[in-house]
Amino acid sequence: MPFTRNELDIDPAQESERIIAFIRQTIGRQLRKRGAVVGISGGIDSSVCLALTVQALGAGRVVGIAMPEADSNPESAILARKLARQFGVQFIVEDMTAAQIGFGTYHRRDEAIRRVFPEFDPTYKAKIVLPGAMENGKVLNVFQLTIISPEGEEKTERIPPAEYLQIVAASNFKQRSRMAMLYYHAERLNYAVVGTGNKNEHEQGFFVKYGDGGADLKPIAHLFKTQVYQLAEYLNIPEEIRKRPPTTDTYSAECTQEEFFFRVPFEIGDLVWLGMERGVPIEEIARATGITIEQTQNIMRDIRQKIRATEYLRMEPFHIHQNQEVNA
Amino acid sequence: MNAQDIKNTIRQFIVENFLFGDTSVTFEDNESLMETGILDSTGILELVAFLEKEFHIRIPNEEILPENMDSLHSLEKFIQKKLKMNAAS
């Protein structure tokens, strides 16, 4: 059987049933909780998770929580509200801006940006991007900082390691404080926290450890992004959410997940990755995807590197086991 | 600076900065630093910053490629080429 684009197709009804049973059993039998909270961002992944959780537990046992902050696109919370209304769940908006000010998220981040671009001030917007893998496929993952002036003038520079790490560490307060807020609501209700990461995010490490990665269960962590879209259609997720480009919604400048992390469109990256997992010959993957063998190799290398480099994100804290020898 | 000096300088940087001086982790001159997990994306930023400072060269993004960066051997060849270009200009 030749390897084709259709390999990513799932039976959405069957897959939904499987996930719904998983959610019900995990929350009821393993976690022994009475319901679930889902952080909803107005994006496709959290919308699908909310819809599946509602089917698993009933709308009365699910709470959808939007947690915007000053840099969030206002459309995100509007879409989240619409989603919550459609699925009949309680909807809570927690404005996280004051928490970010308390943590110094913006101040610490902007201080690092100004070390690269001294002219940067709060009227500017900023984002971190990676070179696109289709046109610059061989270039390694070199993070670049882009600032956009109020007049729309863009400047991009490769970002030095110390500044890169500080910007990311400061921005990660956003995801970590959201996690804390989700657990506040989960604990007061005796509910579980549903993590909304898909396979791309979970395995390539596009999440914040103890931030959006901190959850009790991750019901779609086995699904490629393109498969999440298939489920979204089946579950009647609003079209505005399904058609919206996946965004980090973390940086002040508009920044898609493709620019920031994945480097290739999902329909290409997912097919290459699936082929790679199944050991399909590279020529066949390239043909099915409609790209060159060299581009396929570059994408494969990038995926392998990301999985390896982010292993630590998926690790539990290390400790010494009883009787374990540690040589000096 | 000869080839061995360049490799030693880079090796020392990698061992001290990425391996906490742990010399029990060995890597050959031709071994892929990315495949072995020694070099990740933050490591590349750090390595490039180090190379620019240590060898007084400028490395544009287009040159941050596996064939230039992925092993001590390729790094040494790349640095030699950059140093020659610097000397010529």
Summarize the structure in words.
The complex is a heterodimer of chains A (328) and B (89). Chain A has helices at 12-30, 44-57, 74-87, 97-103, 105-116, 161-189, 199-204, 225-234, 239-242, 257-262, 266-278, 282-289, 293-309, and strands at residues 36-39, 62-66, 90-93, 125-129, 144-148, 154-158, 192-194. Chain A has 328 residues and is α/β, with parallel strands linked by helices. Chain A has one domain: HUPs (Rossmann fold). In chain A, the strands form two sheets. A four-stranded parallel β-sheet of chain A has the order 3-2-1-7. The longest helix of chain A is centred in the middle third of the chain and has 29 residues, at 161-189. The mean pLDDT of chain A is 93. Chain B has one domain: Non-ribosomal Peptide Synthetase Peptidyl Carrier Protein, Chain A. In chain B, 58% of the residues lie in helices and 0% in strands. The A-B interface holds A 131, 136, 138-144, 158-161, 164-165, 301, 305, 308-309 and B 34, 37, 40-42, 44-46, 48-49, 61-62, 64-67, 69.
Number of domains of chain A: 1
Name of the CATH first level of chain A: Alpha Beta
SS content category of chain B:
mainly alpha
Number of helices of chain A: 13
Largest sheet of chain A: 4 strands, parallel
* Total beta strands of chain A: 7
> How large a portion of the residues of chain A is in β-strands, by DSSP E?
5-15%
The N- to C-terminal Cα distance of chain A equals 54 Å
Alpha carbon gap, first and last residue of chain B? 18 Å
